[in-house]
Amino acid sequence: MQIFSPSADTWFRAGLAAFAVLVAALALVGGGYARSEYLTQVGWTRDQQVPFSHKHHVGDLGIDCRYCHTSVETATRAGLPPTHTCMTCHSQVWTGAPMLAPVRKSLATGEPLHWRRVAQLPDYVYFDHSIHVDRGVACVECHGRVDRMPLTWRAKAFEMKFCLDCHRDPAPHLRPPEQVTRMDWSDWSEDRAEAFGMAAMRRFHVEPARLDSCEICHR
Amino acid sequence: MVVPILGCALVAGCGKNMVQQARYDPYEKAPLFEDGMAMRAPPEGVVSRDAPQRRAATQRPAMSAALLARGRERYGIYCVPCHARDGSGNGIVPARGFPHPPDFHSERLKAASERHFYDVMTQGYGVMYAYADRVPPRDRWAIAAYIRALQATNLPEDRTEPRRGD
Questions:
Q1: Which of A173, A196, B160, B164 makes a 20 to 30 Å CA pair with B107?
Q2: Residue B9 falls inside a structural domain
Q3: B81–A contact, CB cutoff 8 A
Q4: What is the pLDDT of residues B19-39, one digit of tens each?
């Protein structure tokens, strides 16, 4: 008696081929998903109570980042401005704008505005704004050209790779600390930026060999 | 024996969210407190541990090049939007409808003391809000010093024309 039908070999081969295709497809879809902007949230805006425009305030008016994010030079957090800061101008400008009604309500009731975080790190990551700003890592390195964002979105995928790329080779990402909040600062040639970066690293004793230790960010 | 124990230990960690851990971070919601905010304001009457240093910082520091440089930088961040780089008050925010601030080159403000500028930054003045929450005392003195330096500069005669809003 014959155990296998005449077509069994063909079916087996077809099955093997189908399995290989399935594995390849899963790898592609999985890899694509892991790198997708759907997962990293790059370029995604979030619904906010007030449609705050960095493009208007930074790009058009030229207000320095630190006018609102006051603790960026001294604390781990850059700081979200209290309603008092918004009202410094908006007690006189755009006073009746429906768009700003939640801001006026917040001032009247004392209840802070509820912002949805756009650039947020996982709780298992330690990050300190002040040391980065002090050493000359510009805001734009991580937050992108906020002066071109009508609504704020995440500019970079805050994955470990993103942090490590810079921690392993900081030189091209450093600039004079007084220029950190400038958005368009790019008039240096690559060589000059590299030379400055190397000098800054020597001065601040920045050692890439130590900067990628686990405990630098996971403590 | 070892395998089930290790297995249990491994599985026990499942379901715990490491990304959003069970702790209160700044700016987060906190159902534990009545106002629902994780960030707390100190109760009334609290004396901060560094009260003497804080009080000392409100005293006017000695004039130095470093103080002026600091003042120039801080002036650029907090004052320029209204008072403009030259101190004329022709900043971009007044150009958009905010009442025009006084010119630092006016006789009245040239005669004013540095303490006056410090007090205005601390408490606000007219439609100008207080900046005490944004500019620490030493920086207020630095800005006051820089305003003095601005007043010592000569500006072209035709500068008084306010910038038109665009």
A1: B164
A2: no
A3: yes
A4: 888 899 999 999 999 889 999
Query: CB–CB of A61 and B96 under 8 A?
Result: yes
Show the tokens assigned to B6.
């290790």
Domain total in chain B: 1
pLDDT band at residue B7 under the 50/70/90 scheme: low
- CA dist A62 to B56, B80, B88, Å? 34, 9, 17
pLDDT at B166: 36
User: Across residues A3-14, what is the average pLDDT?
Assistant: 91
Interface test with A, best of B77, B83, B123, B138 (most A CBs within 10 A): B77
**Structural domain spans, chain A:** 8-40, 73-80+118-217
Phi, psi of A8 (to 5 degrees): -60, -45
* Domain range enclosing B67: 60-154
Residue B35, in any domain of the structure:
no
Instruction: Tell me whether residue B127 is in a domain.
Output: yes
Please name every residue paired with B125 in a beta bridge, in sequence order, or none if there are none.
B128
The CATH number of whichever domain residue B75 belongs to comes to 1.10.760.10
ipTM for the complex shown: 0.85
| Average pLDDT of every residue of chain A | 93
Q: Is A218 on the interface with B (CB under 8 A)?
A: no
pTM for the complete prediction?
0.86
